[in-house]
Batch of 3 targets.
Target 1
Amino acid sequence: QVQLVESGGGLVQAGGSLRLSCDASGRTFSNLVMGWFRQAPGKEREFVARMRWYIGSATYADSVKGRFTISRDNAKNTVYLQMNSLKPEDTAVYYCNAEVGGVSSWGQGTQVTVSS
């Protein structure tokens, strides 16, 4: 199982930027997929971005394409989410996710608040 710890959330004005980090520990596998999800108050958790760890290919939700970038540092076992041009509707708790063979692990979440 993979253990995950997020950091980097905070309060930012609309149009601003934040970078989230997710430190992963534990066993990793060649089919590891790392990703970010978010959950706004009163809404279901939704997909934001994911990356196949060893290949490096990334996928994004339509709502964040062109604004958010997922990346990784293999040496640090860390995945990042660079968020630019933030909008108030991006306000949510952001969760890091690791999936191996259909089994998911989740971080504790980090709050991102975008003021208008």
Target 2
Amino acid sequence: QVQLVESGGGLVQAGGSLRLSCAASGIDFSIKNRGWYRQAPGEQRELVAEVSSGGGVYYRGSVKGRFTISRDNTKNTVSLEMNNLKPEDTAVYYCNVLPIPVQWGQGTQVTVSS
């Protein structure tokens, strides 16, 4: 059974930083493209960052230069370092594989106050 567990969210002031982590079980992350998504209230879920099985990365334009995605194949995890956070980054953040997601986890709430 596939399980994704996100952690590391919280409440920070604008300009602050957070590091999100995602631990996977029941799936081998090392052979998958992995991504971080977010969903703000009333909005659709959107892809924020992706790291491919080969190590290539993609960032949504609004987070480029502020967020860094990384992976640890030995621990079957993917992380998201978020710096210079803005109120518009407020959302529930989820990890998953691409291009076809598996069962979504609970996500982790990130709230950025102005």
Target 3
Amino acid sequence: QVQLVESGGGLVQTGGSLRLSCATSGRLFNVYVVGWHRQAPGKQRELVAFRRRDESTFYADSVKGRFTISRDAATDTVYLQMDDLKPEDTAVYYCAAMDFGAGQWNSWGQGTQVTVSS
């Protein structure tokens, strides 16, 4: 089992930046992908970005060019740098991990709130 703890959410104005952190621990040797999802009020949870073990990345079209996912190997922390934030980015952001062979996100953090004011 992998433990994930998010931090870094908050309130920011349109055009501002935030950096979310996801501290990971536990059975990390079996993790294939770590990613960020978000869920806005009344909407389904959506995938925002992920980073595979081979360092390849994916970004949703809505955040491409504005968000960057990265990892600090020394601390096993995964970051989501969010720039040029928009009100539609307002959501609870969740860090998640997928083990090799799992086929689905099988570990989740508790979430951190991001609010972008217009």
